[in-house]
């Protein structure tokens, strides 16, 4: 009887596992399109915070280049999209993915908008594990600190001043938290260096105006 009981319980557990798997798979199939669309809309909102509608007339989500994993300046762990903002066929800004590997609690994933003239259009932190109430002030929802990058460039401030004030730079740090803003400042500067080094390919690639030169289809 003990053997029969064990066998019966094993069969019931197996059936339960099969039913659970089917339910989970079914739920995923039914909701994956909804989840993908919600993710796309959230991504679009983040892009529009950096380059608003009045500055471009294309759909940035569908107008992209590829930033390759392993690129030193961007610090990416996998390939990601570079978004192009165009007006009347001319690329006015690019939005670069960049990862700061040296946050206090790990990597910080960001996007950095760079205008055609090399100035910062905007910076947003997309994902992090920084300490609530301290390092999480890099989020716009928690403080306006991230807005301090707008209009900055590799020449404004001078290279030696691209640091937090504790390190002799011009950017504020947070009370009790220096590592997080230090990482974001450094990552933003690297994104600007990436855009400067690849300016022609980045901005010509999305330029469809009549006078535009031929350009590569992706960033290298």
Automatic annotation (TrEMBL):
The chain crosses the membrane at residues 12-31. It is a single-pass membrane protein. Pfam families: FMN_bind (PF04205). It is an enzyme of class 7 (translocase). Residues 103-195 form the FMN-binding domain. InterPro entries: FMN-bd, Ion_transpt_RnfG/RsxG. Keywords: Cell inner membrane, Cell membrane, Electron transport, Flavoprotein, FMN, Membrane, Phosphoprotein, Translocase, Transmembrane, Transmembrane helix, Transport. One of its GO terms (cellular component) is plasma membrane. It is found in: Cell inner membrane. Its main location: membrane. GO terms for molecular function: electron transfer activity; FMN binding. The modification FMN phosphoryl threonine is found at residue 178. Its cofactor is FMN. Part of a membrane-bound complex that couples electron transfer with translocation of ions across the membrane. HAMAP family: RsxG_RnfG. Belongs to the RnfG family. The complex is composed of six subunits: RnfA, RnfB, RnfC, RnfD, RnfE and RnfG. This is Ion-translocating oxidoreductase complex subunit G. It comes from Parahaliea mediterranea.
